[in-house]
Specification:
Belongs to the precorrin methyltransferase family. One of its GO terms (molecular function) is sirohydrochlorin ferrochelatase activity. Keywords: Cobalamin biosynthesis, Lyase, Methyltransferase, Multifunctional enzyme, NAD, Oxidoreductase, Porphyrin biosynthesis, S-adenosyl-L-methionine, Transferase. This protein is an alpha/beta fold. It folds into 4 domains: 14-111, NAD(P)-binding Rossmann-like Domain (Rossmann fold, 3-Layer(aba) Sandwich); 148-209; 216-328, 3-Layer(aba) Sandwich (Cobalt-precorrin-4 Transmethylase, domain 1); 332-456, 2-Layer Sandwich (Methyltransferase, Cobalt-precorrin-4 Transmethylase, Domain 2), CATH 3.30.950. The chain is built from 16 helices and 19 strands. The protein has a 5-stranded parallel sheet, sandwiched between helices. Helix 5 (149-158) packs across helix 7 and helix 10 (278-290) packs across helix 11 (309-319). The chain is flat, with a radius of gyration of 31 Å. The structure holds S-adenosyl-L-homocysteine. S-adenosyl-L-homocysteine is lined by residues 224-225, 249, 271, 299-302, 305-307, 330-331, 381-382, 408-412, 436-438.
């Protein structure tokens, strides 16, 4: 993002437009929506612009330095390259921000396309890349945002103090959502601004009488990253959540699916990176559900696999908050799918182990004998740093150094990487990965196996 969007306070600020034709008029029309003190300087000033006096100050000659001494914004809008450059230089010397109309490269700022429902204003910019697209987006927004929105927001703003009678959180949010979604627009259509004010009073009284809703927590599995690998149930719950508390493993594409009013809280937890203490996560769930919120505790993969689910459930049970678990696709399933392999196979393995390389005491101990057996298949979670330790244990228990191993990083995401390895090369391959990776011990990518078979056939 080269241009950072901000909303500039132009009340009583000086804005100078150099130029008196079409271009100047277009900018003037936008600026007239503000309370800026606008001056137009040009030897020729179009009658359409003259019509705006005395709201606009007209100076019937080219811009001079003295015109700009107190200017906050300067528009060079003469359409003449040399004259615009001269005005821009004067503007810069005066310390103003300068826009040369239709010359992005030499401008300090751009004027976005605007959808105006004052005080609700949407600004659309494409950094000059696609003005047509900006116009399309503007047209879509113009048709989807009701004209009454500005009035509703203005009346709503003056009612904010009154609404504080409702406790902050889901109850107050529900009040405002009903106002903007249905009651406000209907009242405005029926009886204008006065009707809206009366409706706010009635709606507030109604909400104050409602009993506090009982909050609850859904432990929702987000899957490995691809939103299409979420269950319908997970999507529906995410769509309704008041509060979403998520791990770092949950991708932005999935968070996008949350209700737009939802409060999104990240409790980043990653192997060795910074993490939120488990107690803080418990406290957050209890605080929000305690206020009546529908909380979604969104966990990467399947919530019940290496996700400390039991501890979180216990914390809720202790204070009597209802909960449920929504299952999902775990990283091992996604990784196996990505290499076209079955996690179990008749005649090869009758058991599948999901193991973690870490436990509370450091490296986790396992049934190494079982893991080392020919044909055994194990999905190793959080295993990148422990790769050498795991390799050592397996070799010690008789595993073959050429045991097939596949590392799947960022399974199901756009940046997924599949790395074929053997037990012998595991540590070095694991060290090269940066993202979350699941290590499939005993499985090779199906394509690699095919190649091997072809080579064998060739022998
Ligand atoms: N509940 C999660 C696992 C959480 S433990 C699940 O069911 O998948 C975190 C570990 O999961 C990571 O260190 C990594 O080993 C694995 N993991 C999670 N998401 C992954 C993904 N998209 N690709 C590869 N591994 C992943």
């Amino acid at each position: 993002m080269q241009h950072f969007p901000v909303f500039l306070d132009l009340a009583r600020a000086n804005v100078v437009i150099g130029g008196g034709g079409e271009m100047a008029l277009a900018k003037l029309r936008l600026l007239l929506k503000t309370e800026a003190q606008i001056t137009i300087c040009a030897p020729d000033i179009a009658p359409e612009i003259r019509a705006f006096t005395p709201r606009v100050t007209l100076v019937n000659r080219p811009v001079l330095a003295c015109d700009l001494s107190a200017a906050r914004l300067v528009y060079a809008a003469t359409g003449n390259e040399n004259e615009d450059a001269r005005i821009a230089a004067l503007g810069h010397a005066a310390g103003a921000l300068v826009n040369i109309v239709d010359d992005l490269e030499h401008s300090d700022f751009i004027t976005p396309a605007i959808v105006d429902r004052d005080p609700v204003v949407v600004a659309i910019g494409t950094e000059g890349a696609a003005p047509v697209l900006a116009r399309q987006i503007k047209a879509q927004l113009e048709s989807s945002l009701p004209p009454s929105l500005g009035v509703l927001a203005r009346i709503g703003k003056s009612f904010r103090k009154m609404a504080e009678a409702l406790p902050q959180g889901p109850r107050r949010r529900a009040f405002w959502a009903e106002y903007y979604d249905s009651y406000g627009p209907r009242a405005f259509a029926r009886s204008g601004e006065d009707g809206v004010a009366q409706t706010l009073d009635d709606l507030l009284a109604q909400h104050l009488e409602r009993p506090s809703p009982i909050g609850h927590v859904d432990f929702v599995s987000a899957g490995p990253g691809d939103p299409e690998l979420m269950t319908l149930k997970a999507r529906n719950l995410l769509d309704r959540a008041d509060v979403v508390i998520h791990d770092r493993l949950v991708t932005p594409e999935i968070l996008e699916l949350a209700r737009r009013e939802a409060v999104i809280i990240s409790v980043g937890k990653e192997g060795f990176g910074p993490s939120t203490a488990q107690e803080v996560i418990h406290a957050l769930m209890i605080e929000h559900a305690g206020q009546g919120a529908h909380v979604v505790r969104l966990k990467g993969g399947d919530a019940s696999v290496f996700g400390r689910l039991d501890e979180e459930i216990a914390a809720l049970e202790e204070v009597g908050i209802p909960w449920q678990v929504v299952p999902g696709v775990t990283a091992a399933s996604s990784a196996a799918a990505s290499i076209g392999q079955s996690l179990t196979s008749r005649g090869r393995n009758h058991a599948l182990r999901l193991v973690t390389a870490h436990d509370m005491n450091g490296y986790a101990d396992q049934d190494w004998q079982g893991l080392a057996e020919p044909g055994a298949v194990t999905a190793l979670y959080m295993g990148k740093r422990a790769a050498r330790f795991v390799q050592g244990r397996l070799l010690m228990h008789g595993a073959a150094p050429d045991m097939p191993v596949t590392l799947v990083e960022n399974a199901s995401r756009a940046d997924q990487q599949i790395v074929g390895a053997t037990l012998a090369t595991l540590p070095q391959k694991a060290a090269a990965l940066g993202g979350p990776a699941v290590i499939l011990l005993g499985l090779a990518p199906r394509a690699a196996q095919q190649t091997l078979t072809l080579q064998e056939v060739a022998k």
